[in-house]
Amino acid sequence: MKREFLINIGFLLLINLLIKPVFVFFIDSRAQDVLGTDVYGQYFALFNLSYILTIFTDLGIQNYNSRTIAQNKELLPEYLPNIMSLKILLSCIVLIAGMLITLMLGYKTGAIIIFTLILINQIMLSFILYLRSNISATGKYRWDSMVSVIDKVILIAILGVILYSSLKDNFSIYQYIFSQTAALFVVFCIVMIINFNLIKKISIRFDLVFFRKILKSSLPYSLVIIMMAIYMRIDGFLLERMLPTPDEAGIYAAAYRIFDALNNLGYLFAVLLLPMFASLLSKRDKLIHLISTSHDLLLFISATASVLTIIYSKEIMRLLYPSGYTDYYSSVLIFLMLSFFSVCMNYIYGTLLTSAGRISSINKIVFGAVILNVLLNLLLIPANGALGAAITSVITQYFVFLLQYILSLGYIKAGFNKYIFFKRITYILLLIFLTFSLKNFINLNWIILAIISAFLSLILAYLWGFIKLSDLKRT
Hints:
- The chain is mainly alpha-helical.
- It has 16 helices and no strands.
- Helix 5 runs parallel beside helix 7 (173-199), helix 10 (284-311) runs antiparallel to helix 12 and helix 10 runs antiparallel to helix 16.
């Protein structure tokens, strides 16, 4: 299983690193720079609100389904038509509720239309993620990997033509949203075809007894996802609502885009690890080996990304946002990236606890995180704006990580290993020292220096034993 994980996560990371950086650095950031912080700031706030509401179209079904189908693949023909019909019903309710909420919040007609279009895209994405969970749960990891980047390829093609031509002069937020709609629709059709091939038929079945059963089983998962969505996404919404202009939300969105793009790397681990952990729960030794392997690999990725982004924060933000850049942009990015390591580790230990069915414990942790996050945002945003939201993110994410890590050690009955902890800390400290030294004592272009630092990080990871070629051998 460890070899299978490494091969599939390697393939998944490769295709995502080939495609998604192009979208983030040359398309998405360019779109914000053309639209401006005020327009994009409002879009970001409405997107975050829609993101939270879209959770109610899923209610934990995706995680529950992934865990269940990974352990009982023969249930897929029964689950797929019923869950699809349930999600259609939930989506209609969320769409109506979303429009009513924006009306009650005092948004104007234009903003409500934009919100509705965003919400439709998010609902479509929710269906795609559910259908992808069937693909990965049945062991078709590479199919799922390929599907994960198709929407970005399409967006690069559509928005690239608009943003890098004279068409950009008339570029609007509506073109940005409709481009996403087109890309998501193509992906939706593809995953529907793959799911059809898995069960040889697709149908919609409204079975109220099954609805009650699945909602009762997935409810604990839904509470986790809803509360996680709140403490991960409420900041952008609060910035737009609490401050007189959406500019701070736009600046936060500029930094959050980089954080979120890198965060997708950690999410890829969770998608792949959930069915794998679920299938190894009865095999403790193999489970511990997979946890250790995924931890070390994600440590290498998250530490490298965090250190390079923090040390070169000014250069990165100046490159991406030449029109509006100030040092404030880079300060917000630094604090967001300080939380990145903890977010990545949560994808491993939160996924482990989810696969093990320790949902009640996770719910208690994330409930505490929601209270902590909202209180800190209410305290820090009025005086510190986007920087206050970023500081809140650091505190909240490490709170969740430490508790989930301690809980996971208890579950696998493994004590705290001082030697492993010391080895991991020395790797991070040495990486910081080397990257900082290269930047300050070698006179080369910063992009070249960043590439050299990333290569040195890879060498260190190999020397420290975080990356082992022997793990790729069949055992």
